[in-house]
Amino acid sequence: MSKPQYVYHGSQYLFDVVCPQQAHGANAYESQKAIYAAETIEEVIPFALPIRWYPDDTTGKRAFSCENGKTFLEYGSLDPNGVGYIYKLRADTFEKLDEWQWISMNEIVPDEIICIQVKDYIDSVTFSEEAKKIQNMLFG
After folding, report:
1. Residue 11 and residue 117: Cα distance in Å, rounded?
2. 19-34 pLDDT, tens per residue?
3. Regarding beta strands 70-75 and 125-127, do their DSSP bridges make them parallel or antiparallel, or are they unpaired?
4. How are strands ordered across the β-sheet holding 95-96?
């Protein structure tokens, strides 16, 4: 498989330049200081959703997982009126990490920034019972 021309990175934050960040994955290769990206927009939507800590302060926590463009929110909240961002990045400095992830250790100016609305993707999110309670308490 050849390297794509572009890869996509999802974030709940808006940046002019995408910089490597320390990841906290399940193992060492998912926990590098890098920009993590995928080949399709659909694969990074869960990372663009503005999933927040609860409570939203230094004592808060959040937990979510994603697979095939679907998100499972175990703990935390998701503002149904919120937005997220998908960054279209040239793949020049990216290396293949596994079957779907690419990483780069370099800062990158995006070719395009796509703003997504949570309301357009809320159907792709499943909430645990605890997350449902938090969600209902915060957003009704």
Report:
1. 13
2. 999 987 777 877 889 9
3. parallel
4. 21-22, 33-37, 102-104, 95-96
